[in-house]
Structures are given as structure tokens and as C-alpha cells.
Amino acid sequence: MNKITIGKMENAPVINKNIYGHFAEHLGHCIYGGIFVGKDSPIPNINGIRSDVVEAMKQLNLPILRWPGGCFADEYHWRDGIGENRKRMVNTHWGGVVEDNSFGTHEFMELCRQVGCEPYVNINVGSGTVREMAEWVEYMNSDGDSTIAQERWANGQKDPWNVKYWGIGNENWGCGGNMRPEYYADVYKQFQTYCKPYGDTMPYKIACGTDGEDLQWTEVLMRNAARFMDGLSLHYYTIPQEWKDKGSATVFSDELYLETLKKARRIDEQITKHGAIMDRFDPERRIGMIVDEWGCWHNVEPDTNPGFLFQQNTLRDAMVAALSLNIFNRHAERLQMANIAQTVNVLQAIILTDGEKMLLTPTYHVFDLYKDHMDATLLQCMVECGLLENGLEKLSVSASRKGDTVMVTIANFTDEATVRIDGISAKNVSGRILSGSPRAHNTFEAPDAVCPEPFTGVRLFENYAEAILPAHSIVALSFEVNSNP
Ligand code: AHR
Question: Which of 246, 293, 347, 348 to mutate to test the pocket of ligand 1 (most atoms within 8 A of CB)?
Fold first, then answer.
């Protein structure tokens, strides 16, 4: 039988709720159509922002949202997106479409206000200037009566927004300027100097990290700029096949399903490898690792704009999310934030829209099942289970505790499995489950084909519990515990 042993950890870290963060870029129909429809739209909205999407985001207690990119961030000039008469530009990265800038700083902050989440703003290093960045920070955070703050008042916002999280560039080794790490480290230091505190808001400054493979980038950034940063990013996408032909989001073999999970599992290795470099320069772990882009990247759906990155989302994607979030929880000591790419209609979206229609993807439901891990204390969790033919463990697990509740989340990748959970003495247990075929997904015609249900396959014994996990299932168990762990 499979066995999970739960126990207390020494100096156990709290799982930063920002690990359950999200990312919305000006890309395809993520912002326009997906989040923002304008005040005059027949789609129900508040100040132009879709109410159905906001409600869905609120339901997840979505903690933080990164914006405006991605690659778009390094061609975005924030002044184009404030006030009347907004400038129209070409979104050269994503489909060459005209961006009318009707969603800008004020609209983003309004979105965060409606959702109740923290904003994370990514500034333009690749094609922007230090002054442009400094003035954006001042525009958003200054409570004085400088000319720039007055401009904000004139645009309808008297109080400063006190934005804490600032990303200084994005993928500056690639779309953000094709820089060498030595060069970027210098540019980073220069930019961050002028990313100033206003009032009580100390900016949390995030330097651009690597896409996973480039250990040298992390080494150079840490050596040259560690003392000037609060966070260092890491991007990791799961591409089932290869970059040129990533594979269909919905049509795939069982073998590719398992291969996809194996590739997703590599994020653990990446966090460990880059974390080890960070540890050498920052043994106290002051600097947060920020996985501000992650998720599955498939081929776009047939007959859609290749530059819009619109893909369906199956139980396979949900498994990748469940596995990744378990890994993130386990790295809670170093990992301070993660943002799945992207919120609506792009890549591994949690929400898809079509005109006035909206659906929640299987990945959305994983965030819902896991949300009680946010701000909980990590528990030790040893897993004894078999390996799949491709060498992957059959189960992925993490556990945390908040008050008298112990939360255990388990992803069972293949056949039905019985699992004994040791180290728990509980009064009650309740659970929810998401399961189906790896290819199962929600459509606008059948939006609830994959959605969570109560899980009844768990029994409590004096000092342990036993659960029968159906094939291809993700289960969240909530134990009301007597004492340990
Ligand atoms: O999320 C899509 C793109 O992937 C982002 O714009 C970029 O940062 C990454 O390469």
C-alpha cells in the first residue's frame, strides 16, 4: 500500500499565499475580451471589468496579479495608458494587433481593487528609460503634491496606490533586450536605484531571472546584484513535445500524458538548482525566488491567431498544476511567489471566455481545491509509492497546517490507489476531488464536465487515515486534528 507520513518540521516555513498568484498580459484575449470589455459593453461589468471573471477570481482568494507582461512589459510605455486620448500602438510581440491602451494603470488598479488582490507591476527595461520607470513609481505611490502625483489626481485617483511588488524587466536575456547577465546586472542596479520608496511603501524589487536552464545567469545576478534585490525570478514552461510543435492541448496519447507530467516535475529540479546558487550568496534566504511564469504551453487551438496563445485545458493541465503547486509548497522556504501563465484565454488559463460566455477550466478547480494552503505552515510529508514506467512517482503530495486544520493535497497520476496517511489523529475529515480522463475538459456547451465533487473515499482510524484515490484524481483532504502534527 502507498503511504504518506505527515510530521512537524523544524523551523517550518509558512507557505506564502503569493505562491498561488496569477499573471495577465496584454496578449490575445487575456485583457481585452477576457477581463476588460469597456463600460458600454452588454456583458455585465463594473467600470469596464467583467463581473463574472472578477467573481471567479475572488472565489479563489486570488492573492496577487502580475501585469502588463511578459514580453509586452518591455515595449509598454505607461503614459500611453492614462488619461484621455490614449495612444494606439502595435503589439509587436503578440499578433501584431493594435493596442488601444484603453486598459492602463487605472484600470489595472481597479481590477485589483475589485478582486481584492495585490498588484505586481512589471516595468519596461528593454525599451524604456530609468526616468520613465521612476515616474511610474512616483505616479502610483507618491502621496505628495508633485506634478506627477497631481496628474494622477487629475485622472481621478487622489490616494496613492502603494504598490509594493515591482518587476525590473522581463526575460531580458531574450525578448526583453537580449542582454548578457553581466550587462543586465548593471542595468538592473541602475534601474532599481530609482525605484524609490514613498510613504511607508518599500518597493519589493524583483530582478529578472532565467528560463530554467541558465545557471550562469543566476550565478552572475547573485554575485553582482544580490544586495540590491528582494526577489529573483525564474520562468518554467512545460512543453509536452518540442518548441516547434508543442502538441495539441486535447489530443494526446497516454504516453505523452505521462511525459508531460515528467517534464512538469522538472520544475522541482530547477528550483533546487537555482536555489542552491542563491544559497551560496544569500544563506539567510532573504531573497525570494519568484516563479512568475509557469504552466503548460501547447499548440494554439486550430483556426485561432497563433500570436494569441489560446489553448484548451484538460485534466492533464490540472495534474500539472496540482503537481507544481505541491512542489511549490514544499519549497516554501525560498519560494515567495509564483504566477501561473495566464489568467484568462492565454496558455494554461484558469478561465476561458467566448463573448458573454465564461467557463472555469480544470486548472481553475485545482487552485480552488488547494487554496487553504495559502498562509498555512508547511508540514513534513514523506511519500512511499511506486514509480511509473517513465520513472515518475505515482503520487504527488504536500501538506500544511492552519490552526486545527491539516490540509493534504494528493495528485494520483494513473490507476486507482489506496493510500495510508500516518501521523494524523483527527476528529473529522472532509475532502474534495477532481477526476476524469486526462483528456477531459470543459467546453462552453458542457462547462461543468470537469468540476470538483465531495470526496467520500477517506476513512479515519485512531492514528491514521486511509483513502482510496480513483484513477487520475486530485484530492484535497481537510483534517480537523486533535493534536499532532
Ligand atoms: O507568457 C507568454 C510569454 O512567455 C511571456 O510574455 C514571456 O515572458 C514568456 O516568454
Answer: 293
